[in-house]
């Protein structure tokens, strides 16, 4: 029996796949892991809404319209605070790589979890000093290394000591210097970008570094409660776009680019790490086999020890 | 105030003009001008340059020479740069010699900076020591000992950092250190009070010697009271600014923010005016005297009584030949 054409319904309903995917993601929620890198006193803790005195990663659940985001923030106390800051970036880079290693370990397990707990760092907020003219030598060293392993977003916290002109000049210098040193920041340009993505990304790049003013205080101004800072000469409202880029930064990280941050970490930084790790292990195994076969001395210790397989992730920076 | 600038228009009328200076000072130095040497130390971006320009009401230090991106990663070694400005303060002529230290604390490894500054300070002492011991002395000898060292602290709002503690500890016995909070307009009034308290408490904890307005004459009640007020203000919170606008016909130095306007000369916004008065007026003699009578004498005793660590590291040829050692 033939199936006449007019019996076949034109509409199948596979367009509901976006809703299905959405529901799945919404049910699971998002994990966003952010690391704050900067000297103490630069305003890192004021950007986190909940106050903390602990060194360990701090988690808070954010929920909006049914979308759940588990935001985990790791601070880097002691970074850049010494007279001699040579190598102060080493623990930070190590922490980021440790999270990749932990994920790799879980992924390689024969009996692995259905949903692997993701502690990988999705974004690094790098705090610039508002007083300097532009990047300092330490900034250049650290940014070069950080951008190789994670998505870096430069931020000027405590920007309330900069006038608008100073802020504009500072942002311009920073952008020039970043370009000169070929330091690649998130969001990265890609040929796959749709036009409106390109426009949005361009506007983000204009704003970088985000000049924010953070505050843990709620103060009253003309009968209204706002989150801000009260100076002797005026009140700063951190949500006011003319006062601070805080709203733009928050939208950027938690709204428009939330899934990008997670995806790029997974598909770019993690993949890079994974490839280089597995390659090293393969080479090491080959060397060991060759040594065993020829009965010679065992090969020299590899740069990345095999213990990546039994790796203990760092909980403290 | 610049020489010949006439009436003081920018600085709020001082509440402290009752503090008198001995008239002998006025006569002796009226023509020559009193030399006063101040060193500015602090990381770039904390407002040293702006402070100096605001103090002298003119552009003494011009804007950064380096404007291109290629220089960002290069840590310039610390330098000592000299500037001289003639000031007229309440009719007294002052030859203000400023020694700026660009490059301090700007590199990745800053440990050399302390030694360099210490050597500089001691070299000036050595020069005086050598001169004192000469058989035929030069009456026009140029005394370049530092009378006041302004150390700029970053307004973190927390406590002193390692570099702050190290510097003040090492140099407290060689110069009158006056700690200053640079860019203090980034702190709210409440944060500023707490920060000042914490800084002073750190200074006590680490046994750091700063210029704490000692009472040289216990009988002068006004001076004792003034010193106690100034001690309570330490560290001085400064906001520097080179922009002058016209307010009701008066030139006023301000910083314009979207949320308000900071007035440099307003005592509620910054301690700038107070500090200026201390340096160029009320305590200029105290600072010079302490440098000569305490700090230099202490150094001289160390040197001449054969303190091996000092002798071994810092003895200059001039001193050795002068004292015939």
Major sheet: arrangement of strands of chain B: 2-3-1-4-5-6
Number of helical regions of chain B: 10
Tell me how many strands of chain B there are: 9
- Share of helix among residues of chain A? 25-40%
C-alpha-based Rg of chain B, rounded? 20 Å
Strand content of chain B: 15-25%
Parts with pLDDT < 50 across at least 5 consecutive residues of chain B: 1-26
Chain oligomer state: heterodimer
Distance between the termini of chain A: 72 Å
Total number of helices of chain A: 7
Q: Would you list the SSEs of chain A in sequence order as H and E?
A: HEEEHEHEHHEEEEHH
Order of helices and strands of chain B: HEHEEHEHEHHEEEEHHHH
Shape of chain B: globular
Percent strand of chain A equals: 15-25%
Task: Please explain how this structure is put together.
Chain B: This is Cell division control protein 11. The complex is a heterodimer of chains A (317) and B (325). Chain A has 317 residues and is α/β, with parallel strands linked by helices. Chain A has 7 helices and 9 strands. Chain A has a 6-stranded mixed sheet, with helices on both faces. Chain A has a 3-stranded antiparallel sheet with strand order 7-8-9, with no helix packed on it. Chain A starts with 16 loop residues before the first helix and ends in a 23-residue tail after the last helix. Helices cover 39% and strands 17% of the residues of chain B. A 6-stranded mixed sheet of chain B has the order 2-3-1-4-5-6, sandwiched between helices. In chain B, strands 7-8-9 form a 3-stranded antiparallel sheet, with no helix packed on it. Chain B has 325 residues and is of the alpha/beta class. In chain B, strand 8 and strand 9 form a beta hairpin. In chain B, helix 3 (111-132) packs parallel to helix 4 (162-171) and helix 7 (272-282) packs across helix 8. The chains are: A alpha/beta (317), B alpha/beta (325). Chains A and B meet through helix 3, helix 4, strand 8 and strand 9 of A and helix 4, strand 8 and strand 9 of B.
